[in-house]
Write a structure and sequence with these properties.
About 55% of the residues lie in helices and about 15% in strands. The protein is α/β, with parallel strands linked by helices and about 290 residues long. The longest helix is centred in the middle third of the chain and has 15 residues.
């Protein structure tokens, strides 16, 4: 299996889709960071995240009390001295818990926000982006621009399921993300690993087998099926992955054709291979 790394994308990608849109705004217009009253800021009604973990907010509030808000909020004018949040609602909520009266914020006009959003959308549509890079970009549109996945799908002209599947790649373990990023595994391999997210140790085992043994996507999927059917022991799992067993070999010898077992989540199929119509007739006569 090839382990050649894909050439880097250079500054162009990082400049347009940085690790944090907040930081990018700060670097572009650092002179526009302002101290705004907490009470002058209102949450974005289009915020896709509706639930905020209270324990996590309390922890963030403690950190803010000790160190302050290290990354400014991003807001847009909402009229009559009020500003609507674009990014940083967790920090804004934690600042209220911490008792802060003012918070650092960067004021962006609607036009400027639209330009940033368009830059990200255009980059998602680039053909040279890896699946993981697309996932990061889509998630930023969702989190930092309050776009629903349905809206993103329509904007990109893709099916909702396609967007959901791409974003799920961000749930991969770090090691699997690194392997996908460096093209040591394919997107198909990654989806097989994702299917075992309830058993992280099996995810690691599967990744190791793909990298060490050069497993195909089908072999990875067979491994997943075996685990989900309750064969947790490594030896038993790999035995279930074998497409040829003593029984299939006996049948193969009897009919004079290759016979394989392919297991699925519900049962499986028995596959008999033939190359010509004459071979098919011979097989049928034996059966």
């Amino acid at each position: 299996m090839s382990t050649v790394k894909k050439s880097g994308l250079g500054r162009g990608f990082d400049a347009l889709i940085p690790k944090s849109v907040d930081t990018a705004v700060l670097f572009d217009d650092s002179d526009r960071v302002q101290k705004l009253a907490v009470s002058a800021i209102v949450p974005n009604p289009q915020q896709p995240r509706q639930h905020f973990d209270e324990d996590a907010l309390d922890g963030l509030a403690i950190s803010i009390k000790q160190h302050g808000i290290l990354q400014p909020l991003v807001v847009t004018p909402h009229g009559q001295g009020i500003y609507a949040l674009v990014a940083g609602e967790r920090r804004w909520r934690a600042a209220q818990i911490a008792g802060l009266q003012k918070v650092p914020a960067i004021v962006r006009t609607t036009k400027e926000l639209e330009q940033l959003e368009i830059a990200i959308v255009e980059n998602v549509q680039r053909v040279d982006l890896s699946p993981l890079e697309q996932a990061v970009s889509i998630e930023r549109l969702h989190e930092q621009f309050s776009m629903t996945y349905d809206a993103i799908a329509k904007r990109l002209g893709k099916a909702n399921s396609t967007i959901s599947n791409v974003v799920r790649l961000l749930e991969l373990p770090t090691a699997a993300q690194d392997a996908l990023r460096t093209q040591q595994i394919s997107e198909g391999h990654a989806r097989a690993i994702l299917a075992l997210k309830e058993t992280p140790e099996k995810q690691n085992e599967l990744l190791g087998s793909i990298l060490k043994n050069g497993w195909s996507v089908r072999q990875a999927e067979q491994f997943v099926v075996s685990i989900k059917q309750g064969f947790q022991d490594t030896k038993a799992t790999k035995e279930r992955m074998d497409t040829q067993t003593p029984a299939t070999k006996r049948l193969s010898k009897r009919i004079g054709a290759p016979v394989h077992i392919h297991r699925t989540a519900k049962g499986g199929r028995l596959e008999i291979t033939f190359k010509t119509d004459a071979e098919l007739e011979t097989i049928l006569s034996h059966l």
